[in-house]
Structures are given as structure tokens and as C-alpha cells.
């Protein structure tokens, strides 16, 4: 039998997800506040804890605190997951030979490994300097000059075991570059092996065009609703998929940052990215067509953007390059994901959440293959033994059906659009790893579980 505290945790977790859409709906009317609903300027990731026995959410000082706002490439974001699968290289186009550590390898390590091995030394392995990177872990060096494919770091990157934290994996060209650099002798071409790796990513290529001194500063022009092309729906997803590898993070190529609309309008070393209502004179169009230096984007083994996609960029600029989101300081990744979640069919949203859920589980434990059970309202992902998992699934569906009757929901429709994902972990350690690796935070010790609803994601973890 499913014992009482687990039944209680299941019930509260499912309730928390179900009321998520109600809270967001209430927040559209300032006179109807919703519990745990973010207000302007607050993180848009409400998270509701499930209290343990003898503990209440009200008595928990951490109850209702939101997870950190989503970062580019966030694993809880289906678009982020898609972007992680096929990003451009962190350092732009990489050479096939004569790899430079400072110009080609260090930017990859800084972009993909900073959280765990530069800002920290997880597993007692630091990449803060070349000296510490060369030293390796307590078990020995992670690479051996001349033996790229046999090096531990290449094996970890190729298998997908590393990097584990939130954000994109290394691309095949990036792994190939690291392997080739090791094969060529793993030479250090910087002035000091003790210098911080971040130092080698600050330099940016010389601009192809010189910024005009009299060029007017771009401002945010809000959408009127009459546009035929929307930034959030038609432009942002293309940027996430094709441009984020080079134009986000520290030291973006050409000093042109695309992570937020407010940063995009600042332009880069070559000037403003566009001239409103003048697509033919806009730098971004020239770069997409290859009429101003190298054609962009430049990921290897991928064709340039199609003429149809470029035409949408031209139309968007011709209509004024308007911004149709709520906040121009919101991440481009988050804006694209929210827009997709709101506009796709329930079936497509459920598919996105399945992809996202599997990615979250891999972040928690890359070596574990969980069992998934799909019900009417719940997608359950767990590594519990089959018998226990079946009992949990039946209990959860029964409670969900009861809540449906309680909320007078239509019996022939899911309670939450796109469905609910329920992560069920066998112990506290696994649950804590989920928090650390997926949400980037440590849960209070008395939490038995929590739920998250932010339109893109709808899940509970216990």
C-alpha cells in the first residue's frame, strides 16, 4: 500500500500544479491576486513546496520561494533543449587543424564548464587556469597529449556525461576541436599557465564594418498588434536555434549580445543590427545574406537560413522591428518558449514537456534509465521498482480524478493543458540532485517535494 505521507505528498504536489494555471489567469487581473503568482519584476517561475509530516508551508521560511529565472539553454525549456541539441560553437567557426588553446579551446571550456569547474571545483577538478586544468582530478590528468580519443575529458564530453549542469552540451564540432587539440600535443599558447581562463575569452574579432559615429541609438518600439511578423513567434526561435552559440554568454562574437532584446538593440562592434523600416540597409540582413563579410550564422555542417526565413526578418524590420513581448529585458530564450507554449496545440505542448522531462532526468542522473507511464493527466517518470511505481501511478491518477470533480473540470479533457509531469524519486538524495542539477538550488531539508507551473513547464517532484 502507498503509505499516508506519500499519499499526502502526491495529493499536495498535484494540487499545486493544477492551481498553477488558475494563479496565472488571476494575475492577468490586478484585482484578483493569485497565490505565489509573480508580479512584474519578479521571477516568472513559481514553485510550491510540499510540506513533510508535521510541517506546513506557512511555517517554512523558504515556502513559495521561486527558482532562479530561466537561463539560456535552460533544461526545463523545450526550446532550450532543442537549442542544446544543435548549437553553434562557443567560439564561432573552428579550424580543422593547428588549434589554439587560448583562441579555440578556452572559450569552449568557459562557455560550457564555468558553473561547475571554473567558478567552483566540483569533484576536486578545477579549470580556472590552464595549470589546474592540466593537473586534472585526484584520479589523475583528464587528457594526455597526443591521445585525444583516449582522454577522459573527451570520453565524458562524447558520452554526454559532461557538462551536467543547466545549459547546452558541447557540440560535435567543439568536441572534435578539443580532441584535435589534444592530438596535436595539447599545447598552451598563452603567456601564463596560471592566468584565469576567462581572460582568454575577452578578446573579440575585429569588426567587419566600422560603426558610424552619427548612427542613432535604437530604442524599444512596442508592437501595435497589426504586425504580420512577430519577434516572439517568428524571430526569437530562429535566433535561439541558430545564433546563441556565438552571440550569448561572456565575450559574444563581435560584442553583439542576443540573449535579451534590450541587449540586441545596443548592437555590437559593427554598429546597430537593423535600421527600422529599412531591411536593405540593416546589418543583420546583410549578414544573413552574406553581403557584408562572412554569411551568418556559421555553424559547421549546417546550411544557411532559408530565403523564407530571411524574408521574415526583412518583413519584421520593414514593419518597424517591433517588440511584442511583455518585457524587453526578458531572455530571448524564455520569450520564445513562452510564445510556443501558448500557441501550440495541447498535444504539441505535451510532446515538448516529454522531451523536457527526459532531459531533466538525464541531468539528474545520466546513467539511469527511468520508467515512464503516461496516463490521462499525468506523465510519471521514476526509477522505482515496477510494483511500487504502478501503485503510485494508480494513486496519483485517482487523486487527479478526484481533483477534477472538485474543480468541476470537463471529464473528457486533461486538468492542465499539455498535461502534468510527475517525477517520483526513491530517496532524498535523488530529489536533492534534481534541485541541484535541474533548478540550480538546494532544497530545504524538510521539503518532501514541490511543484512548478510557469506555462512552459508543469511538473511536480517528490
What is the number of beta strands? Answer: 6
Radius of gyration: 24 Å
> In which order are the strands of the major sheet placed?
1-5-6-4-3-2
Strand content: 5-15%
Overall mean confidence score, pLDDT: 78
Distance between the termini: 17 Å
- Structural class by helix and strand composition: alpha/beta
Low-pLDDT sequence parts: 22-46, 51-92, 202-210
Helical content class: 25-40%
Largest sheet: 6 strands, mixed
SSE pattern, N- to C-terminal: HEHHHHHHHHHHHHEEHEHEE
Number of helices: 15
General form: flat
Tell me what the structure shows.
This protein is flat. It is 39% helix and 6% strand. The chain is α/β, with parallel strands linked by helices and 462 residues long. A six-stranded mixed beta sheet has the order 1-5-6-4-3-2, with helices on both faces.
What's the topology here?
Blueprint: H1 4-27, E1 47-51, H2 78-85, H3 101-118, H4 130-135, H5 152-159, H6 172-183, H7 231-242, H8 244-247, H9 261-264, H10 283-289, H11 307-318, H12 332-343, H13 346-364, E2 371-374, E3 378-382, H14 386-406, E4 420-424, H15 428-439, E5 447-453, E6 458-461
Parallel strand pairs: 3-4, 4-6
Antiparallel strand pairs: 1-5, 2-3, 5-6
Amino acid at each position: 500500500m502507498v503509505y499516508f505521507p506519500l499519499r499526502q505528498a502526491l495529493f499536495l504536489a498535484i494540487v499545486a500544479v493544477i492551481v498553477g494555471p488558475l494563479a496565472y489567469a488571476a494575475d492577468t487581473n490586478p484585482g484578483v491576486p493569485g497565490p505565489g503568482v509573480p508580479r512584474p519584476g519578479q521571477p516568472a517561475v513559481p514553485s510550491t513546496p510540499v510540506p513533510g509530516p508535521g510541517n506546513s508551508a506557512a511555517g517554512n521560511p523558504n515556502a513559495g520561494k521561486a527558482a532562479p529565472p530561466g537561463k539560456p539553454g535552460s533544461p526545463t525549456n523545450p526550446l532550450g533543449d532543442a537549442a542544446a541539441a544543435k548549437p553553434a560553437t562557443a567560439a564561432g567557426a573552428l579550424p580543422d587543424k593547428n588549434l589554439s588553446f587560448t583562441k579555440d579551446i578556452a572559450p569552449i571550456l568557459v562557455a560550457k564548464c564555468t558553473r561547475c569547474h571554473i567558478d567552483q571545483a566540483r569533484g576536486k577538478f578545477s579549470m580556472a587556469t590552464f595549470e589546474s586544468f592540466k593537473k586534472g582530478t585526484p584520479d589523475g590528468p583528464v587528457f594526455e597529449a597526443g591521445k585525444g580519443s583516449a582522454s577522459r575529458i573527451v570520453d565524458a564530453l562524447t558520452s554526454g556525461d559532461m557538462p551536467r549542469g543547466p545549459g547546452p552540451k558541447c557540440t560535435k564540432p567543439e568536441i572534435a576541436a578539443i580532441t584535435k587539440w589534444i592530438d596535436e600535443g595539447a599545447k598552451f599558447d598563452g603567456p601564463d599557465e596560471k592566468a584565469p581562463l576567462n581572460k582568454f575569452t575577452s578578446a573579440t574579432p575585429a569588426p567587419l564594418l566600422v560603426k558610424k559615429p552619427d548612427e542613432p541609438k535604437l530604442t524599444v518600439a512596442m508592437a501595435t498588434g497589426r504586425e504580420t511578423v512577430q519577434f516572439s513567434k517568428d524571430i526569437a526561435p530562429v535566433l535561439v536555434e541558430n545564433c546563441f552559440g556565438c552571440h550569448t554568454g561572456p565575450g559574444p562574437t563581435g560584442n553583439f549580445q542576443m540573449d535579451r532584446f534590450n541587449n540586441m538593440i545596443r548592437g555590437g562592434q559593427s554598429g546597430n543590427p537593423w535600421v527600422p523600416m529599412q531591411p536593405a540597409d540593416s546589418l543583420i540582413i546583410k549578414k544573413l545574406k552574406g553581403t557584408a563579410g562572412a554569411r551568418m550564422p556559421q555553424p559547421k555542417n549546417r546550411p544557411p537560413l532559408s530565403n523564407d526565413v530571411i524574408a521574415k526578418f526583412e518583413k519584421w524590420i520593414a514593419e518597424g522591428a517591433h517588440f511584442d513581448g511583455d518585457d524587453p529585458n526578458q531572455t530571448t530564450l524564455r520569450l520564445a518558449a513562452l510564445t510556443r507554449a501558448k500557441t501550440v496545440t495541447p498535444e504539441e505542448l505535451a510532446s515538448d514537456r516529454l522531451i523536457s522531462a527526459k532531459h531533466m532526468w538525464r541531468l539528474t542522473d545520466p546513467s539511469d534509465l527511468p520508467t515512464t507511464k503516461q496516463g490521462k493527466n499525468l506523465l510519471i517518470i521514476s526509477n522505482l521498482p515496477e510494483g511500487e511505481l504502478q501503485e503510485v501511478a494508480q494513486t496519483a491518477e485517482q487523486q487527479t480524478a478526484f481533483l477534477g470533480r472538485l474543480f468541476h473540470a470537463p471529464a473528457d479533457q486533461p486538468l492542465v493543458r499539455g498535461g502534468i509531469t510527475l517525477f517520483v524519486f526513491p530517496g532524498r538524495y535523488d530529489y536533492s540532485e534534481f534541485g541541484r542539477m535541474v533548478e540550480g538550488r538546494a532544497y530545504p531539508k524538510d521539503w518532501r517535494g514541490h511543484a512548478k507551473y510557469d506555462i512552459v513547464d508543469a511538473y511536480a517532484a517528490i
